[in-house]
Amino acid sequence: MKAARARTVVPGRTVSTPKDPRTLVLDVIIGALGLLVLVLAYSFASRILFRPPVDPVRSGSGTPGTIQLDVLNGCGAPGAGTSATAYLRARGFDVVEYRNYRSFDVRESLVIDRAGNRENAEKVAYALGIRKGNIIQQINEDYYVDVSVLIGRDYPTLKPSH
Q1: Each residue's pLDDT tens digit, 75-100
Q2: Structural domains in the chain?
Q3: pTM value?
């Protein structure tokens, strides 16, 4: 016959028994899987809400391929053109050149359709978070790009700055 253990219960105190090591391992695994689910959910939401996929392929009857563009810094903020260029390249656009604009007094960023295909300009504007009202058309046969992006003083509100 086994002897019963005497247990002293002190009022107001909880007496804990040591956990089984297997239970502790399962708790750690469940916690790690929960953290993984949170990271994946954040990544998914971030991709869909904050950086939605864009289509860098030319539209229309012109030459097939990737939309080619140049980026002009018209706000004077150091790195504004470089940041926008890196952002657009990471999304598949072909940025062939980035440079400073002739002045740094551009208030709002513009997307300029250079080839007569507004849909290409709209894709670039969407990628940067520039409203459609800031798309203009200036066809110039001396330009060998589809679109020009002119970065204005509203640069901090554009997607590359987030």
Answers
A1: 999 999 999 999 999 999 999 999 99
A2: 21-50 (no CATH), 68-161 (3.30.70)
A3: 0.67
